[in-house]
Model the fold of this input.
Amino acid sequence: MSVLLQVSDPHFGTEQPPVVEALAALSSEQKPDVLVMSGDITQRARPWQFSAAQRFVARLGLPRTLVIPGNHDIPLVDVFTRIFRPYARHRRVFGDELEPLLDLPNLLAIGVRTTRRYRHIDGEVSRAQVQRVAERLRAAAPDQLRVVITHQPVDVPHASDEHDLLHGHTRAARAWTQAGADVFMGGHIHLPYVRPLRLRFPDLTRRSWCVQAGTATSWRVRPDAPNSVNLMRYGLPGRANHCTVERWDFTMARSRFECVETWELALERN
Done:
């Protein structure tokens, strides 16, 4: 069995030290094989905030890491950098590849850059990106869990969050599900949930799931959602068509992350 830790929206620069320590302790206890960071790594894309994020990732020391930028990881007030070098600081810390990929025996994880320098908050996915990701999904091995990571969500549970949906989400979700995607991971709205995509797209011919994480370490939490991360367990012996997602919330009274909900995801193989 393998374990993936999803950390989203830590917003370094607004992180809470006790929560950071608790997350490091959780990682040490659970020993995940893969770290996925689904955007908004920093609060304002400042160099010292990226440095703090870099130290945190190094401290976890996990074997595999996939990091994509969020809208907060592009400078806001530094207009020159935003226009001409929007990802320079992200690249300095996490490498030149803004759409990283992990191709492991039991996992295919595909990062998609959904941020745009001309958009303030919203994200979008282009037709070329949809086609490229679909082609890679179709080439996946039968035993691989197929995960696509975007910052903005492809599905939301509440009408009040509809405005935060990824531009192009309908085209992308349909094409990627048809091509074999099992899970769509994201963040952005600081609200954790797991939903079958057929709730939004009833005519999908395959089963796929939207797995969203809350804000991992920032004080910028929603009233109905504390700091949280997800742990995904997959490659279970004799259960290749299943994986589980656990939501772990930070509990202030105990100053630790605790598992508060578990979903078992049934997967489909062509």
Remarks:
- The CA atoms of residues 76 and 82 lie 7 Å apart.
- The first helix runs from residue 17 to 30.
- The two ends are 22 Å apart (CA to CA).
